[in-house]
Write a structure and sequence with these properties.
Blueprint lengths: L1 H12 L3 E2 L9 E7 L5 H11 L6 E6 L7 H7 L2 E4 L4 H14 L3 E5 L14 H9 L3 E7 L4 E8 L5 H14 L14
Parallel strand pairs: 1-7, 2-5, 2-6, 3-4, 3-5
Antiparallel strand pairs: 6-7
Helix pairs in contact: 1-2, 4-5
């Protein structure tokens, strides 16, 4: 029932087109969510993933948003509070959480912020390698209002080179963020 409601909100009320017939099939997976230029990306992504009536996709949100009563709601929606002051502690915590769970779909914005950034973060890469899970190139295009889970991307042992390659692939997709000026792929 909730899945159908989420699909209705996303497609009929908000006008999005869903390009993926199913969620990522693996029990543990990282979904790169690009472009990330607005807090609305969380809403659209949540409705998209919940419409599958499958595994919840978890998402990192800075700990400052977890105050009463919003914090409880965010946790219920799959948000994980993170302290961005220590990237290594954040990545280590996510690895531990994913390893401890039977199923864990983690959505990550490789830009690391809603503002324009030319050098994307590589933490997703370390998490994927340590957990042994695949990485998918998910997207939400505010220009066309299309959303989907794209290709599974192969990773090497070079996180920076892989991230640069992924960033270039996203660049060829001509995606638009809610705030287009805040999405940079080169």
């Amino acid at each position: 029932m909730w899945a159908r409601f989420c699909r209705f909100l996303l497609t009929k009320v908000m006008g999005w087109t869903i390009d993926s017939p199913a969620p990522a099939p693996e029990k543990k997976v990282i979904l790169l969510g690009v472009p990330h230029t607005s807090a609305w990306d969380f809403v659209v992504s949540y409705l998209f993933y919940r419409q599958f009536d499958g595994p919840d996709a978890k998402v990192m949100i800075k700990k400052e948003f977890f105050f009463w009563p919003i914090g409880g709601l965010l946790r219920k929606l799959g948000a994980i509070p993170v302290d961005r002051s220590s990237a290594s502690a954040m990545v280590k915590s996510l690895i531990e959480q994913m390893n401890a769970a039977d199923s864990f779909h983690l959505a990550i914005a490789p830009e690391g912020t809603r503002k324009a950034t030319r050098k994307w973060k590589t933490g997703y890469h370390l998490i994927a390698k340590e957990v042994g899970c695949p990485v998918y190139m998910a997207y939400f295009d505010w220009g066309t209002k299309h959303i989907g889970i794209g290709n599974k991307i192969g990773l090497t042992d070079d996180a920076r080179a892989d991230t640069d390659r992924i960033q270039k692939i996203y660049g060829t997709m001509n995606l638009k963020g809610k705030y287009p000026e805040d999405f940079v792929t080169e």
